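With this grant's support, we have settled on a layout for protein records. A representative record follows, to show the layout.
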Amino acid sequence: MKQVLLDRYGTPWDVARCAEVPDVGDPDPDEVVFDVLAFPINPADMGFCKGTYRLKPPLPATPGAECVGRVVAVGAGVKHVKTGDLVINLQRENWTQRRRVKGDDAIPLPAGIDLRQAAMVRINPPTAQLMLSDFVDLKAGDWVIQNVANSAVGRLLIVLAGQRGLRTVNVVRRADLAGELQGLGADIVVVDGDDLASRVAKATGGDAIRLGVEAIGGAATGRIVDCVATDATVVHYGSMSGEDPRIGRSNFIYRGVRVTGFMLGRFLAKRSPEQIRAIYAGLAGQVLAGKLSAPVDTVYPIDKIKEALAHADKGGRNGKILVSPNSAI
């Protein structure tokens, strides 16, 4: 079978190769085997290839934080999935044609779900949902502010917040994104800048913002912190700038703002397998109904992984780059 391997870390399309490897074999009683139908190339995957991600396993290594697959064999002890089911996988190393994983790591998806969208269910939708639910007890009418609002997580957060009656302030780098985000339900769209806090206060009529969601780092974190209310919480879940957050200490001392972090695996680990399946069942149901979606630019075969990675690194794309290892989409 075909699998993407890294023999060294570096420029992703230089170091990744499509190799022939042995088949995964039959499942043990507590395992599931599935064919990988599609996987997306995420920023974390690019960092993994470069060797800059938090995980840097011994080489050779296989990237891949998420995928969608179809079950081909089930161990006798696994009861929640069956042969033919669509599944996502909670483990990594998914850039391959076939996977064998523990049963609890295989999460069933509803039949009929769009495979392109299913490939992207594993990370971004629960990230947006749990950041809205796990830090502040928000009520309908409350405000949330986020930057990188035009990212996959940002767009999902707008939709999920709107379903709960929450109002969103969405910070972007380009004014021409406003119409598109307002079409998703964004209440306010503002361009980032040094006077962000005063412009946000004017736009919201001075209403308290109890939750901030931030993924740039550096001074951008501080600007989001300046926008939120006394005793509010700001969740830092990424650093597109590559910089650590920079925040004025008066926000802590005089206003009691709490700044914390989010990593999906850490928050899923607090939940039982049944609770995790319930989260994904709800999100997948929304994808199936067309309520949650993310744009896709191009789908590549696995033997074109170098071209796919180079494309994923380019600006001006109209969505995610996907790879279909078994030509399923």
